[in-house]
Amino acid sequence: MEKNVTLIALFAGLIAALGIIPAITLGFGVPITAQSLGVMLCGTILGSKRGGLAVLLFLLVVAIGVPLLSGGRGGLGVFASPSAGFLIGWPVAAFVIGLIVEKWNGAPLVIVAGIASVVGGVIVMYAFGIVGMSIALDKTLLESTGLVTAFIPGDLLKAGIAGMLTAALAKARPASVLSRADAV
């Protein structure tokens, strides 16, 4: 139990630390950040439940006003911004990523973690993000979908990095990749 709490807090801290990397804010108010890599790693390394909880903890701290989002943003206002859908989708994305890594044992971990990061960290996260942008920007779903295409190359790169980091960690310390350790 204590180990789980520690890991959840540690990975919430990882997402916060990735917020130090400067964001590139696009014209429609949604920044490109490294923090979605942290969300992917929460799922690939911690698994579905712990990964989702780590992201929820991070968002709770942001909601109470701690400026942990890239660019020093925090507070309830971020949940009414154009990026709100992405933020709301983060815990779901981490959960889906973790679930895929936990259940799919038939391929090398680097491939599974990379594909899981694309499914959860791109497809699932974009589904939430597109709806959120549509509401916040008063655009159609199709218009919002067009706007998120700017994120695809970077998010695919982050998914590949998440896959490689997870596989490298599993090779160096197999028991530390809990998404796989729990499945065994």
The shape, in one word, is globular
Write down how many β-strands occur, each being a DSSP E stretch of 2 or more residues: 2
Mean pLDDT: 94
* Protein structure class: mainly alpha
Integer-rounded radius of gyration? 16 Å
What low-confidence regions span 5 or more consecutive residues with pLDDT below 50? none
Q: What CATH architecture label applies? A: Orthogonal Bundle
| CATH topology assignment | Arp2/3 complex 21 kDa subunit ARPC3
What top-tier CATH class fits best? Mainly Alpha
Helix fraction by DSSP (H/I, runs of at least 4): 55-70%
| Structural domain tally | 1
Largest sheet: 2 strands, antiparallel
Count of helices?
8
**Span between termini:** 19 Å
Strand order of the largest sheet: 1-2
Assembly form of the protein: single chain
Secondary-structure element order, N to C? HEEHHHHHHH
Strand content: under 5%
Organism: Yoonia maritima
Membrane topology: Multi-pass membrane protein
InterPro entries: BioY
Subcellular location: Cell membrane
Task: Give an overview of the whole structure.
With 184 residues, this protein is an all-alpha fold. The chain is 69% helix and 2% strand. The protein has a two-stranded antiparallel sheet with strand order 1-2. The model has no long low-confidence stretch (mean pLDDT 94).
Descriptive terms for the model:
8 helices; membrane; Biotin transporter; mainly alpha; transport; two-stranded antiparallel ribbon; 2% strand; 184 residues; biotin transmembrane transporter activity; 69% helix; Arp2/3 complex 21 kDa subunit ARPC3
